[in-house]
Design a protein that fits this description.
Layout lengths: L4 E2 L4 H7 L83 E2 L5 E2 L19 E5 L2 E5 L8 E2 L2 E2 L2 E10 L5 E3 L6 E2 L11 E8 L12 H7 L2 E10 L16 E5 L2 E5 L10 E10 L5 E3 L5 E3 L11 E8 L12 H6 L3 E4 L3 E3 L2 E5 L2
Parallel strand pairs: 1-19, 4-17, 8-11, 10-13, 15-18
Antiparallel strand pairs: 2-3, 4-5, 5-21, 6-7, 8-9, 8-10, 11-12, 13-14, 15-16, 15-17, 18-19, 18-20
C-alpha cells in the first residue's frame, strides 16, 4: 500500500467521520468492559481480585469500590456495565454520534435516533455507533477526543478512592458511602477520560463524603497510595443517557457533584480505527464515504484492545462500494492510501455480533 502520511484536518470534521450510518444488522450481543491486568492482585470481599479488578462485597461502589468486571460503581448511580448517557445531543467536547444531523459546534446530534433493527430510540438517548471488526458487526459509544495523547500513549488524571487502610494480606478496605474525587473536568487543564486510581487512607472514624475535594484531602494530611490501575470513566452531564440503559456514577470535583460512566480498566495505549474518505474538498476537508462503517482490529478480550482509538483516514476512489471492506486485513491489502489527522477518540466497544 502507499505510505501513510500525516494530514492536519479540522478536528470537528474528522469527528463526523466516526459517526457512520447504521444499517439493519443481526441482534447484537453485549460484551463486558475489558479488565487490564495490574500488578496488584486483590482478593476478599473488600479487596482487589486476581484479575486486577477492585471489589467490595459483590460490587465496588463509588464510595470507593469497583465491580467484578473491573468497572467502578457509585452508590445509586452506576449500572453493572458502567456505561452512561448523553441527553439528546453529542457533547461539546466533540464526541460523535450515529444520528443524522450535526450541531453547530461540530458534534453529532441524535434526536430520535434509529437503532440497527429500525426501531426509534426515545428522544434524548445517545445511540451507539456501528462498526466492523473482522467482518463482524460491533457497536461503541463515542465520547470524543478529550484525552491528550502522544506517541500512542494516553495521558491520565488521578481519581481518589477512599479506604480504611489495608488488611493483614495487604488488601485495601474501602469506605462505604464515599464518592470518588477527581481534580479536573472536561475543559480544565489536565483532564483525561482515563483515570489513575489513587487510594486515600482515612481512619475508621472518618465520616463518608465529609471530604469532597483534593484540597480537603491534602488539608487533612491523609496518606495517598498510587496504584497502576487505569479506568475509563469519561465525565458527562448529569442528564446523560445511553442507548444500552447504563446509568452514571457520581463523583466529586471541588465540592461539586460530577457524573461518569465506568467502562472498566483500560491500558494507556491506543488502537487504530479506520474511517473511509474519497479525498478532500476544495477547502481541504475530508469527504467521507456514506454507508461505510469504521473498521477496527481489536475488541474487548483481544490482546491490544483499547477504547482509545487513533484515527486513520482511508482514501478510496469515488466508485468504491460502501461496506465492501469490513476488516483490517482488507484495508491494508487494498493498497489505498491512508492519512493520520492526529486524533484519538474514546469509543468503548460494548457490543460484538459474530459474523
Amino acid at each position: 500500500m502507499k505510505l501513510t502520511r500525516f494530514l492536519p484536518i479540522p478536528l470537528i470534521l474528522v469527528i463526523a467521520a466516526l459517526a457512520a450510518a447504521c444499517s439493519t444488522d443481526p441482534t447484537p450481543t453485549p460484551v463486558p468492559p475489558t479488565a487490564t491486568p495490574t500488578a496488584e492482585a486483590m482478593m476478599d470481599d473488600t479487596t482487589m481480585m486476581d484479575d486486577g479488578t477492585m471489589k467490595d462485597g459483590d460490587t465496588m461502589m463509588d464510595d470507593g469500590t469497583m465491580m467484578d468486571d473491573g468497572t467502578m460503581k457509585d452508590g445509586d448511580a452506576m449500572m453493572d456495565d458502567g456505561t452512561m448517557k448523553d441527553g439528546d445531543a453529542m457533547m461539546d467536547d466533540g464526541s460523535m454520534k450515529d444520528g443524522d444531523a450535526m450541531m453547530d459546534d461540530g458534534t453529532m446530534k441524535d434526536g430520535d435516533a434509529m437503532m440497527d433493527d429500525g426501531t426509534m430510540l426515545p428522544e434524548g438517548v445517545q445511540a451507539r455507533v456501528s462498526g466492523n471488526y473482522e467482518g463482524s458487526h460491533v457497536e461503541y459509544y463515542d465520547f470524543g477526543a478529550k484525552s491528550p495523547s502522544a506517541n500512542g500513549a494516553v495521558s491520565t488524571a488521578p481519581i481518589f478512592v477512599f479506604i480504611n487502610g489495608f488488611d493483614a494480606a495487604g488488601n485495601p478496605m474501602f469506605v462505604d458511602g464515599q464518592h470518588n474525587i477527581v481534580t479536573t473536568v472536561p475543559g480544565v487543564d489536565g483532564y483525561s477520560d482515563l483515570w489513575q486510581v489513587m487510594l486515600v487512607e482515612v481512619p475508621g472514624s472518618y465520616v463518608p463524603d465529609s471530604i469532597q475535594s483534593k484540597a480537603d484531602i491534602d488539608a487533612a494530611g491523609y496518606s495517598i497510595t498510587a496504584t497502576d490501575i487505569l479506568v475509563n470513566c469519561p465525565i458527562v452531564p448529569a442528564d446523560t443517557m445511553l442507548e444500552g440503559g447504563e446509568e452514571l456514577t457520581q463523583g466529586w470535583y471541588n465540592g461539586t457533584a460530577v457524573y461518569y460512566p465506568d467502562f472498566g480498566m483500560n491500558p494507556a495505549t491506543t488502537a487504530p480505527i479506520y474511517a473511509f474518505i474519497t479525498g478532500l474538498d476544495a477547502d481541504g476537508n475530508p469527504v467521507f464515504v456514506e454507508g461505510q462503517h469504521n473498521v477496527i482490529g481489536v475488541v474487548p478480550g483481544d490482546a491490544g484492545y483499547s477504547a482509545f482509538w487513533e484515527v486513520n483516514l482511508v482514501i478510496v476512489p469515488a466508485d468504491y462500494v460502501a461496506g465492501s471492506i469490513k476488516d483490517v486485513a482488507s484495508v491494508f491489502s487494498s493498497g489505498y492510501e491512508m492519512v493520520q489527522p492526529g486524533l484519538v477518540v474514546n469509543c468503548p466497544v460494548t457490543v460484538v455480533t459474530p459474523a
